[in-house]
Amino acid sequence: MAYLELDSLTKAFGHTLAVDHFSLNVERGEFVSLLGPSGCGKTTTLQMIAGFEEPTSGTIHLNGRDLSGVPARERGLGIVFQTYALFPHMTVSENVSFGLEMRSIRRRERKARIARALDLVHLSPFASRYPRQLSGGQRQRVALARALVIEPELLLLDEPLSNLDAKLREEMQLELRRIQQEAGVTTLLVTHDQNEAMALSDRIAVMQAGHLVQEAAPFEAYENPSNVFASTFLGKSNSIECRIENGAIVTTAGVRLDCPAGAAHTGAALAALRPERISFVDPGEAILSGTVTERVFLGDQWLFKIDTPIGELLVTRRNAGRSEPDTGSTVHLAWQAEHLRILATGDAA
Amino acid sequence: MKNGRFATVCTILFAIFMLAPIVVVIAVSFTPEGYLEFPPSGISLRWYRAILDNPDFIDAFIMSLKLGLVSATIATVLTVPAALAIGRGSFRGREALQALFLSPLTVPTVVLGISFLRFLSMLGANGTFIGLALCHAVIIIPFVLRLVLASVIGMDPSIEKAAVSLGAKPGTVFRRVTLPAITPGVVGGFVLAFITSFDELTVSIFIVNPSTTTLPVRLFSHIAQTTDPLVASVSTIAILFTVAVMLFVDRLYGLDRLLIGEGKR
């Protein structure tokens, strides 16, 4: 039995199923992300694990214990909320102390554990500050220390970095990963940010409309998306509508493309192609030619929109300091057939 | 932002309009003469000594003080749970409940006074302290509700979830997290309620009896008989008392934050 086991978890609000027979296993010490757009049921799943929502059906087992009917306050989970939810009238160390006081831990041990927790998140000099005197990133770390100091069996992170600006978010991603590994705590992260999920997790569970769409390590999920949704949600992707006929791809525009080896599918499909896998080549080597309709400079890379016979394609190219084709110029494109992913159309995974 | 000249002039005129009557009352209270004189011809504490010769004013002051404290306490105790329910609940009749709590504002006070008089007479509680305190509580509940509600709505509801997840029982969550988080609104509401009760005349005049005469009622009946500067000296002391209460609360929580809403956090 896995450390955390969600089995056929379902939550209905009226006639809508927010979470629909969702099953997931998390091993001890693992960092798993629930990734999906807002409304996909990921937050409801977290609320059920935390004990704030009662599942309509299905079970949650943590460390061999059935959590059905166990009130939230007896679950012993560490939760970091999107708003941090720090107690505004308490200092940093009082915030961290709260959970220990609820466990009737003696003053001396409490002090030692608070000191250790603040040290872990590098906030020791701020122990007597109030939350309003801290920056967003510091509040975030107080929330983390408060959740970790009770030595929870499971750490739940609800969009913990979404209130931070982009630069701080990247710093906190590394920091969060370090803290999680130092504390060795099993962690479930809920997020809509694919970069965050990929950077932090051992495994990603992609959710769509209450269902689990894909469950894989970040690299695997990115390289082999299980369906159209997963391929477009995890990073950028060109989706080429096509049919598979006699081992070849025929796009809706009638262009024939080489099919990757081993694609067993026949009939209507989507061919997914990552923008970074398309290269600019000499006319003789080109699979397709097209016209640059838009060009965006992103610092470390260029993003092109190219009008081609099979529709508009996104292409990204690493910025290597050379000049790149401008809007209106003709470019010749090529890719390797094995970089195409053939996905069944429709919602069925 | 810097105000233009016109705005500055308006602000000054408004401040004069607000403060002039108070300045006149305070100035008149120091007159040595036996009638209301402005500007006073000299400075004397004659009418402050006169308060000591009229112990019924001191009794009335103490009565108003007790009444303010008791009625503000009743109103606050009733209103805090209501504000929590109205501010965060989503149940049928939520709007109606809020309208009910705010309704005393919409009824003319003199009508309330007559109704209270009839009601207390029916109960045989006319002129009793507790009857008076309950009537005052009704009048001041809207003030408390408005301020407490503002605090409740400004509170992040997930702090309660955080407390629960850390192992707190419902009572502990309320005592250690919810209540402290809304304390500014509760204290602000209490003080505003106290001051409103302390000042209340229209309703009280219907329902007091000689043993429960409040300061505004005592002043009113004094003016009805004579117009000596005693009312000015008593008023000055009442004004100073109110200012002292406001200053105390300002030092504690900041009046801007209580009366206007959360400033910077």
Structural overview:
- The complex is a heterodimer of chains A (349) and B (265).
- With 349 residues, chain A is an alpha+beta fold.
- Chain A has eight helices and 20 strands.
- Chain A folds into two domains: 4-226, Rossmann fold; 236-344, Nucleic acid-binding proteins (OB fold (Dihydrolipoamide Acetyltransferase, E2P)).
- In chain A, the strands form four sheets. In chain A, strands 6-7-8-3-9-10 form a six-stranded mixed beta sheet, with helices on both faces.
- The longest helix of chain A is centred in the middle third of the chain and has 18 residues, at 166-183.
- With 265 residues, chain B is mainly α.
- Chain B has twelve helices and no strands.
- The radius of gyration of chain B is 22 Å and the shape is globular.
Give the number of helices of chain B. Answer: 12
Tell me the count of domains of chain B: 2
Helix fraction of chain B, binned, reads over 70%
State the total count of DSSP E strands of chain B.
0
Task: Summarize the topology.
The complex is a heterodimer of chains A (349) and B (265).
Chain A: E1 4-13, E2 16-26, E3 31-35, H1 42-50, E4 57-62, E5 65-66, E6 78-80, H2 92-102, H3 107-120, H4 136-148, E7 155-158, H5 166-183, E8 187-191, H6 194-200, E9 203-208, E10 211-216, H7 218-223, H8 228-233, E11 238-245, E12 248-251, E13 256-258, E14 267-273, E15 279-280, E16 288-297, E17 301-308, E18 311-318, E19 330-334, E20 341-344
Parallel strand pairs in A: 3-8, 3-9, 6-7, 7-8
Antiparallel strand pairs in A: 1-2, 1-4, 4-5, 9-10, 11-12, 11-14, 12-13, 14-20, 15-19, 16-17, 16-19, 17-18
Helix pairs in contact in A: 2-3, 2-4, 3-4
Chain B: H1 5-29, H2 46-53, H3 55-88, H4 94-102, H5 109-123, H6 129-154, H7 158-165, H8 170-199, H9 204-207, H10 215-225, H11 230-253, H12 255-260
